[in-house]
């Protein structure tokens, strides 16, 4: 599974989502942005966050700096000011069938870079893609929609 981290849902904010779930907001430091995580099960929510918050066994560590939690507990903790330092709430996810992603990688259908906290959490959505490309030495202005083989 994968999560899109640069496609906002501007009509939805965490505070309104918490109200819809009957979670009282006591100390919400800031209204965390809600992102479109992908086209699969758009009613399912995930909180992608820094690894300073771990609600074991409900939190899945992702590498050295990220974690993901998909329970009501993290929403309650965010509403009470006890959640992770930095986070994004995403609704939906992207998914692949067995072997599909591997095949797409072999066909050079994806560009891959190391995860970067500053890019995911620190940049405006419209700058994340370009910044990620630059970490692997690619200038997006040099990309072409035409493909070929050498």
Protein structure class? alpha+beta
Main beta-sheet annotation = 6 strands, mixed
Number of helices: 5
**What would CATH call the class?**
Alpha Beta
Estimate the mean pLDDT confidence.
89
Structurally, the number of domains stands at 1
Widest β-sheet, arrangement of strands: 1-2-6-3-5-4
- Per CATH, which architecture? 3-Layer(aba) Sandwich
The general outline is: elongated
What is the strand tally? 6
Radius of gyration: 17 Å
Low-confidence stretches: none
CATH homolog superfamily? VC0467-like
The level of helicity is 25-40%
Classify the fold: give the CATH topology.
Answer: VC0467-like
The N- and C-terminal alpha carbons lie at a distance of 32 Å
Task: Label this structure with key terms.
150 residues, alpha+beta, VC0467-like, six-stranded mixed beta sheet, 6 strands, 24% strand
Task: Offer a concise description of the structure.
The protein is of the alpha+beta class and 150 residues long.
Helix and strand topology:
Blueprint: E1 8-13, H1 14-20, E2 33-36, E3 40-50, E4 59-62, E5 66-69, H2 72-79, E6 87-93, H3 100-106, H4 117-122, H5 125-135
Parallel strand pairs: 2-6
Antiparallel strand pairs: 1-2, 3-5, 3-6, 4-5
Description:
With 150 residues, the protein is α+β, with helices and mostly antiparallel strands. It has a single domain, classed as VC0467-like (3-Layer(aba) Sandwich). The protein has five helices and six strands. A hairpin with a 3-residue loop joins β4 and β5. The longest helix is centred in the C-terminal third of the chain and has 11 residues. The chain is elongated and about 60 Å long.
